[in-house]
Design a protein that fits this description.
mainly beta; seven-stranded antiparallel sheet; 7 strands; globular
Length: about 120
Amino acid sequence: MAGYDVAKIDEIEGSYGGAFKQVRTAVGGTAFGINIMDLPANADGYPEHDHSHDGQEEIYVTLSGGGVMQVDGDEVALDSNTVIRVAAGTKRKVLPGDGGARLLVVGGTPGKAYEPN
């Protein structure tokens, strides 16, 4: 068995119309959750949510495109020079801009070993 796995982002099957790609599953990762979100231009269907139910914090990195993230009433730019960490109980909503947005999202529960669902 090889000590690494490779997946091409555009070849990972996505849910929600292809917008949500489970990177962890595609490469066999087990240490943390990691996904790619491909959101079309000006889409507003990404739900406002938090993770108070599972304690998971998330880190968002914009790989391409941009927009804004609404975080507890503030707007934070989504661009390739910004990393955003959002605590479990904090509400967040992603609003991609005119060019859409491709986001890398890494999640885990602080102080606990990761458990894939």
